[in-house]
Every structure is written in C-alpha cells, then in structure tokens.
Amino acid sequence: MIFPQIQDRQIATCRALNLWENGSALLWIEDAEDLAGGAVLGGGDFPLAAGGGGDWLGGMRTSWCGRVGLFVVAFAGVTAAGAAEEKPAVRQLTSGPRHHFFGYIGQSRTIPWNASGRHVLALETEFQDRLPGAGDAAGVCVIDTRDGNRVRVVDRTLGWNPQQGTMFYWNPAAPETQFFLNDRDPRTGKVFTVLFDLARGPGGGRVREYRFDDTPVGNGGVAQAGGYFLAINYARMARLRPVTGYKDAWDWTRGVAAPADDGIFRVDVATGEKRLIVSFAQLKAALARLPTPPPRLAERDLFINHTLNNRDGTLVYFYCRADFEGDRDKRLNVPFTVRPDGTGLTAHDIFIGGHPEWAEGSRIVGSVEDQQVVYDTEKRAIIERWGGTETFPNPGGDIALAPDGRWFVNSHREGEHNHYTFLERATGRVWRAPPVFMGQWRSGDLRLDPAPCWNRAGDAIVVPGIAADGTRQMFVIGVGR
Questions:
Q1: pLDDT tens digits for 188-227?
Q2: How far is CA 186 from CA 156, 189, 242, 272, in A?
Q3: Are residues 12 and 121 in the same domain?
Q4: What b/e sequence results for 102-128 when a residue is b if at least 16 CB atoms lie within 10 Å of its CB, and e otherwise?
Q5: Which of 75, 110, 131 is the last residue of a domain?
Q6: Domain match, 119 and 252 both
Q7: 95 shares a domain with 50
Q8: In terms of residue numbers, what domain contains 45?
C-alpha cells in the first residue's frame, strides 16, 4: 500500500502492517530521511519523534512504538479503509505484554462474542514461540467490551494449542454466560471438556466437567442448536497431527492404526452420556470399499479433523486423514458425512478443500479447482460457484459464513499479512479489508492462520494478528452496511 505523503518525504521503503478504523496505520519504514525535522532515521537507531509525543508529517501524526522502523500513523481526514467510509475497518481488541487469541474456525458458526455482545472469549499465554507442553497452562479470559476491553482471567486450562485455542464455544442453551472449553488432568494427562458459567459465584465457575476415564476425549464441535457436542481424541491428534493436538496427553490408542473404540463421540450436554457414533474401524472398512482404496490402508494410522455440525443439526461433515506429517502427495484425506445418531456414513468422491463451512441444509462451502463453491452433500454435487482467484485469491483459505448467512468472508496470506475478502451473497458485492500483520508466523505448527470468526450481528469478525510490540493479539474487522 502506497502513502504519497510519505513518499514525498523521500522514504525509501514503507509498508502498511495494519490499518484501524480511527484512521491510524501501523507502518514499517526503512532508510527514511527527513521524517522528524530532517533527522536521518535509517540503519538501526531511530530517534523518538520530536517532542516525545510525535510530529505532524504531511497531514499525518507519527508516534514511536519502541521498535526500529515501526510507527503508528494517524491520517487526518482519511478512513481506515482509505476510501469509502462503508468499507471494512480494523481495530485492535487486546494488547500486550501477554499474548491473546481466540482460536480458529474448527466448529461451525464459531462466535467469540456472548449473546449480548458484551463479552469476547480469549486465551492468554506467556509465549508464542513453541507448542505448549503438558504443564503449560493458558489463562481463560473474557474481554469486557463495555469496560474498555478489559481482560479478565476467569480460569486456566492445560488443553490448548496455538492454532485451535481450547475449542471455545458459547453454550447455545445459555449463550450469555456459559461456554465450553477443553482441559486436561495435570496428574493423569487425560483430556476432558468443561462447561463454564460466568454467573456461577462472584467470578464465574465450572458447572460441569465431562470426564471419561476409559476414552478421555475433548470437544471437537458443539451442535449449533445445542444439546450435544462431538468429541475426539486430542492425544491421538498430538501424535498424528501435532498442531491440532495436546502434547503428552494420555492416549489409549497408541500403536493401533484404526481402533474400534475411538473415532467421533457424541456427548449429551445435560446428561453427560457419551456414545461413539463412528469408529476408525468403520472408517477403515468404508475406505476399503471405495472404487480405488487408499494404498497401505491396513498399516496407516487414521485420525479425524474438522467435525462440523450443520446448521439444523442433521449432518456432520469431517475428514478422515493419515500421514499428514510427511510428503503431501502421500497423504490420505477423504471427506465423510454422518448423521449425529451415527447412521448414514458416506464417503464423498468430490473433495471440498480448505476449512469448509456449512451453509443452509445439506450445503457446505469450500473450494474445488481454485473456485469457492457450494457442495450439496445430499445431491453429492457442486450447486453454486461464488468466484475464483480473481475474487478470492485463495479459495482454499480460512472461511466463515455470518450467522444470518448474509456475508461470507474468505482469507488468504500474502507476504507478511493476512487478507480478508467479504462477499455479500444477495448482491454479489465484494469488499476487501485492510491487511492484518502476521510477521514471521506464516507457516509451520506456530503459524498465524487468518481464522475469521463472526459476531452474532453479522457485521464484524475477530481475527488474530501481530501487534506493534510483537505480541499475538486479537483484532476486529467491522463490515460496513
């Protein structure tokens, strides 16, 4: 992004890291001259802008952020989108020195805000440069948007990772005060799910812990209408897909390629009853019946990702996978659907890529051949195409559909930024938000996925990003109406 006011002042390199709705921009400036009264600001030791509080430069106010070349710039009379005031704007929700993040879009209709919109869920951590071990606790936080975005730690969890967080989900039966999270027992290493209530006691408390000693599983997807959640074995995930598992958790399936006592469980929220609705043994048998069965099926350790409940609670979409830590060409990755009662297990021959998101009924949004498409799981056919790379630079990127279905957001990485493209389904209007800085965290187990999550009104998303002080924080992108 080019800023002519800065170019006119002979700055050699200027890149926008973030833009905010108050008209501020976070800039990285290299080898600059004449920025503060003619001082040379290149080569390592930038002085504070004159007067300590910043100077005006061509209609912009500059302020020092404590790091070489990193400036916050407020543009006089310009919106954060740089043009029409209706376009999306970005503002920072949390701040350092600790890291704050929500997680990712691993459950359908994942909403960080509670029912009234006052509280936003977040994890708080001391580090971002490694995967957490068994003893690394994260703070379970609520952000009070009516009290200056004050962050309050209400609990702690040992069941989390940088990509997924702790699988937060507000309880659909009590979305103002109750939410789910995952945890693990510090003594046994066994994973379990927690139902937490902000209204319990003076600071909130745990209403229930869903512990299963024989098969310790954690929430993998709450039913959108409530009543139950799908649960998976995060210890098995830690072995086979470390970025989505809980390191050193207790795994009863070690050494078993396709266990009959593991797979997708359904847990009743009210009674705590657990039932296995599809096992890895069943999935192995289903894969063997495909017209072209995967090679080496007998020896491959299967795992499950993305257990997605559809909007009306009649279908679950998921991937059966294997060998994701090796050569991409040798991965096993087959999409399935199953009904929540365990019937109707179906392998799909059309692969919907990315992180799919349920639309209405049996229709799910994903990517096929560089197109953003809608796939009907009942008809087993692509029924809509929303655009290719000319609209969505990466149709296989992280996506989310607003709760009311009006807006769709797709995301992609480019350089050191995450980018977000909004589509209004009824009109076909496309808006692009200002980029959000992710810095060095572009790939690997510690990558900063774009992971957009809508609010309940469908007019803003929360996303992760790197703040001026280098910490991982949460940002809100508002969508103009």
A1: 999 999 999 999 989 999 999 999 999 999 999 999 999 9
A2: 12, 6, 19, 22
A3: no
A4: bbbbbbbbbbbbbbeeebbbbbbbeeb
A5: 75
A6: yes
A7: no
A8: 4-75
pTM of the model: 0.83
Residue 461 has pLDDT above 90, yes or no: yes
Task: Determine the Cα–Cα distance for residues 468 and 465; give it in Å rounded to an integer.
Answer: 10
The total of structural domains in the chain comes to 2
pLDDT tens by residue, 302-324: 999 899 999 999 999 999 999 98
* Residue 192 β-bridge partners: 183
Residues 207 and 275 in one domain: yes
What are residue 158's DSSP bridge partners?
none
Residues with Cβ within 8 Å of residue 354, at least 6 apart in sequence: 366, 367, 395, 396, 397, 398, 399
Quick one: the chain helix, strand, coil %, rounded to 5? 5, 40, 55
DSSP state for residue 76 in the 8-state scheme? T
Decide which of 49, 75, 101 is a domain's last residue.
75
Confidence of residue 144 (pLDDT cuts 50, 70, 90): very high
> CB neighbours of 162 closer than 8 A, spacing ≥ 6?
101, 128, 131, 132, 243, 445, 446
* Residues 270 and 318 reside in one and the same domain: yes
